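Bumping with the actual sequence this time:
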Amino acid sequence: MADGRQRIDKWLFFARVVKSRSLAAKLAGAGRVRINSDKASQAAAMVKPGDVLTITLDRRILVYKIVETGERRGPAEEARGLYEDMSPPRAPKQAASPIVPVRESGSGRPTKRERRDTDRLRGRES
């Protein structure tokens, strides 16, 4: 690249942050990418080695420091060499404990025995 700069959409695509360059352009256009804490409003925003990107994807926040610009979208090993991952560690998932309904004895629907006793009191013996 001339003077070591590259468009943000190309870099996101080469670094395998997104699946396609058009998705990278949409991500940058939506303001979900920050370059050195400034929002990238266009896919044509230029990045260079040393820039820090903050990318908001789904429920994750990625913080990448650009090590070098890419020449192509290569294998994952090659893509990992384009950045240094400075993202905060993910919070561990908490196991969802099953909610078991608890009811006190005597509350809720009456038992058969209680129903017969109630019927006797009301005079409806069977």
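The tokens above came from a reply further down the thread. Helices lie at 8-14, 21-29, 76-80, 112-122.
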